[in-house]
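Slide 14.
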Amino acid sequence: MRNFDPTPLFRATVGFDRMADLLDRVLTTEVNQPTYPPYNIEKTDENAYRISIAVAGFSAEELHVEVKENALFVSARKAEDEDAGRTFLHRGIATRAFERRFHLADHVRVTGATHADGMLHIELAREVPEALKPRRIEIARADAPKAVEGVSRDAA
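Slide 15: predicted structure.
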């Protein structure tokens, strides 16, 4: 059930459609979120992140990492015939197929992925374009004469 109505925000903002969609998606998701496989999201630097997913039992060739439209998709599928002819007395290592989806913010891109010791590590970096970075604006004095481009003050 939704306890928060974002309608007043929509009346006072322009260009925040993606934020509204994300907020709506978070508020309407089901309580029964998939918990397999377990994962961590950590901030490794001011503009760097790492997603670590426990993928015990999967090889690097069985894992797929893909980025589409500000979303990161991680999936895995075991070969069907791999367990044929094997009899398990206890099977505690889950190797069922999965797909995880992570929504990425603007200017966040995947820089690499590594598979080691049953963990898949996906490195991400936030790269803010120069046009969006803060810049200092020089304030001119009102009583200072304006310089004409191409003409020096000594020549005038």
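Speaker note: The mean pLDDT is 81.
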